[in-house]
Amino acid sequence: MSIGNFSKILVAIDGSKMSMKAAEYGVVMAKKDNAVLIALNVIYTPASTFTYTKKTWFDEFLKKSKDEAKEWFNKIKKNATEKEVKIKTETVEEIYSVPAGIIKYAEKENINLIIMGSTGKTGFKRLLLGSVANEVVVHSPIPVMVIKS
Q: Of the candidates 30, 38, 24, which has an alpha carbon nearest to the alpha carbon of residue 6?
């Protein structure tokens, strides 16, 4: 792969306006390079959850989270299909952190580019970059494209 040409692009999705905007960029980038676009949603489930939470509540939380992600993925899939972009969607559970989940998945799947919004669902801002985006940018060995509002 030469610099600037990508074969596998990951877009991190949390349902926020910025993550959906990042998905639009992902579709355009994937079309440009004839790449596969992977939309990833990471469900953060700290290890302590299993100690302090009833299994039925946790199962309901997971189901609700996965159902929400399906709705987001359907919007992205529709856009990708209209533009003839190959797309895969994935939801993963992560006990360490959302950034760790994104990076681990990207490394495991040999992703060439990670695209994400500058701020996510939480709305918290660390200077001009959200904490999740900041952690991915700082720790990822893979190039990261951050989409700003």
A: 30
SS3 98: helix
For residues 108, 111, 112, 114, the Cα torsion angle rounded to the nearest 10 degrees is -110
Measured distance CA(117)–CA(123) in Å, rounded: 11
User: Is the CB of residue 90 less than 8 Å from the CB of residue 105?
Assistant: yes
Token pair of 38 as six digits: 């992977």
Count of CB atoms within 10 A of residue 80's CB? 23
Mean pLDDT of the chain: 90
| Residue of 87, 73, 142, 144 lying closest to 110 (CA atoms) | 142
**Rounded Cα distance, 134 and 125, in Å:** 10
Taking the CB of residue 12, how many other CB atoms lie within 10 A of it?
A: 28
Helices (H), the chain: 17-33, 49-52, 55-82, 98-108, 131-139
From 1-5, 36-40, 101-105, the region with the lowest mean pLDDT: 1-5
Could you read off the pLDDT of 52-104 as tens digits, one per residue? 778 888 889 899 999 999 999 999 999 999 999 999 999 999 988 999 999 99
